[in-house]
Amino acid sequence: MRRLSFLLRPGWLALMLVIIAFTYLCFMVLAPWQLGKNTKTSRANSQIQQSISTPPVPLKELLPQQDSSASNAEWRRVTATGHYLADVQVLARLRVVEGEQAFEVLAPFVVDGGPTVLVNRGYVRPEAGSHVPQFPRPPEQTVTITARLRDSEPTMPDKEPFTRDGFLQVYSISTEQVSKLTGVPLAGSYLQLVEDQPGGLGVIGLPHLDPGPFLSYGIQWISFGILAPIGLAYFTYAEIRARRREKQATVTEEPAPPVTVEDKLADRYGRRR
C-alpha cells in the first residue's frame, strides 16, 4: 500500500479526475455527437440518392391528412394539384444559396382533396440594405406542381419574426411557426419546388452527396477515450517502478556496521580453533 500512497497526492488525484472526465466526455458526449451527425448525413444522402432515381408520387400518398408529416420520405419527389394562397407569402431570410445570401419565398398551397402545405417557391436575391426585391406572385388558378418533400426546420427562439418591405420574415422554415403567424393550417412537412414549376422562382438545388468527416471524428474520440486511461495506467506503473528502484538503490548503498573488538577477537580465536 505504501507504494501506491503517491496516488493520494493532490497532483495525482487531479490528474486522475481529469482523465476520468475526459474519458467520460469521449464515450458519452463527443463520440456519440459525431457518430449521430454521420448517421443523419448518411440518411440524408441515401434519401437524396433514392429521390433522384424514383419517379414522383401523388402528395396525398405521403401526406394524407392535414397534420401529416413524412420525415422518412424527405427529398422524395411528389406531385400535387391545387392552388396557391397568393396573398399569404412569407420570406425566410438570411439563407445561403450557391454561396450567396438569399430570401426563400414561402406560400401555402391548398391541395385538391388533401392538406394545405407550405411551398418553398425558390429564392430571390436581396437588394442593397437587405431589402426585398420585386418578384412575381404565384398563380391564383388551379395548377399542378412537382416538388420535393422537406422536413420542417426548428424555430430559432432568439430570432423573432418581423415585417419589412410588406413581407413577414422568419429565420427558419418551420411549418408550425408559419402556421401560427399566418393563421393557415399547414401540414408538418413542406414542399420545395423543382425546376420549371408554376409559381417557381430561383431553383434551390440538391445538396452535395458528401458523407463528411463525422465518422472518422467519432472513431478518433473513441480512440482518445481508450488511450487516456491506458496512458494513466502506464504512467502509474512507471512511477511505481521508479520508486522501487530508488528504494533498492538506497538499501544497496547503506554502509556496513562498524567492526567491534569482540568481533575481531572472535574472528581471531575462531580461526585458531
General description of the model:
With 273 residues, this protein is α/β, with parallel strands linked by helices. It folds into two domains: 8-53 and 212-249, no CATH class; 56-193, no CATH class. It is built from five helices and nine strands. It has helices at residues 10-53, 59-62, 175-182, 214-252, 261-272; strands spanning 57-58, 77-84, 90-97, 100-111, 116-124, 143-150, 162-164, 167-170, 190-193. A five-stranded mixed barrel has the order 2-4-5-9-6. A hairpin with a 4-residue loop joins strand 4 and strand 5. Helix 1 packs antiparallel against helix 4 (214-252). The protein starts with 9 loop residues before the first helix and ends with a helix. The relative contact order is 0.16. The mean pLDDT is 84. InterPro entries: Surf1/Shy1, Surf1/Surf4. Residues 261-273 have a biased composition (Basic and acidic residues). Keywords: Cell membrane, Membrane, Transmembrane, Transmembrane helix. Its main location: membrane. It holds the Pfam family SURF1.
